[in-house]
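Hey, I was hoping to borrow your eyes for a little while. I've been puzzling over a protein and I'd love to understand its fold better. The fold is given in discrete form, as structure tokens running alongside the sequence. I'd be grateful if you could look everything over and explain what you see. No rush at all, and the record is pasted right below.
>
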Amino acid sequence: MKLAGLETFVVAPPAPGWGGRYWIFTKLTTEDGIVGYGEVYASAVAPDVQVAVVRDVFERHMLGESPESIEKMFRRAYSSGFTQRPDPTVMGAFSGLEIACWDILGKARGRPVWALLGGKMNDRVRAYTYLYPLPHHDLTEFWFSPDQAAEAAVARVEEGYTAVKFDPAGPYTMRGGHQPAMSDISMSVAFCKAIREAVGDRADLLFGTHGQFNTAGAIRLGQALEPYSPLWYEEPIPPDNLLEFKAVADAVRIPIATGERMTTKAEFATVLRTGGAKILQPALGRAGGIWEMKKLAAIAEVFNAEMAPHLYAGPVEWAANIHLGASISNLLMCESIETKFHDDLIGGTIRVENGYITPPEAPGLGIDFNEDLARAHPYTGNELHLQMQEDPCNYQGGNTFAGGAPPIED
């Protein structure tokens, strides 16, 4: 059984576009015709350039190799070009290919991926959701309305969710960390207060940021949120200075979560060693794939740290998250995005029910990837999956941040 063919799909989800402007899926085929699907989560270059990187990684390091050779292929890609250091673009490409290899291996053996990772530790996986507008909400007003966010939180809790995430403090800019405006702190407090009063103790509050604050600013904001007891304070500072997370963790009485933009166990291990975070949020389509993050989960156990795989992508990465989560003992929860398009792309094979996800029993990732639907929604734009604004924080007029959701017109 050797890897023989690669096809990629760059898919644009229809409006409102929850999950990013586009998703990059991989399809690997073996010489004997077994097909596996994966997903790349990397957004630093245009999608056609990322697809070229995917093909180069495949042809250079994986073509003709057994899909069982996960460790060998990882070391080839990780070391490529005399690097042996985290590279989000190359490792993102490899991650999408690696996930597809696991899908193939499970199908070849007639077993779900979690069974190949040590078996099922968790019969169900706790899900959390970002707070998105309800159908009657105004798509512009929602991101700045604590009352509408609280209403959305109640709706999600009534569906069974026990944790909801929101991130009202903007902006996230290319300029690096900054001090939050007082208006950003006030709005963040108002969101926490309204949502906590609405859901009481029925759900955890997950306060998100996008690494937009400097260390002192992150501490100021975090301390203001402490009375509402969030379960986590997500990525409060940029990921380019991993040692500074400890300063925030020491000063704020909310667990620090981070990892959406980190790549390989090397970056995560730095945060664990220093005590900078106890909740790790890898994006499996960027961080090195399923096997690399299985290793990370084992390392995290030693530090009493928990895993909470991140999702701002498509449903194939989500499926990988679920299989990893099912197989580890230190799982906290997995992020989920519920849209009809997400559901249709994998044929409704994995779903959140009453706030939890039952890991699939079908072979491989357990999904029915709809290639026709993927091809019917090609991405034709020239923007990146997510983009950071160039303008600095506005300390006079306030800031706008539409929840990370790119504007998409019908």
About this structure: The chain has a mean pLDDT of 95.
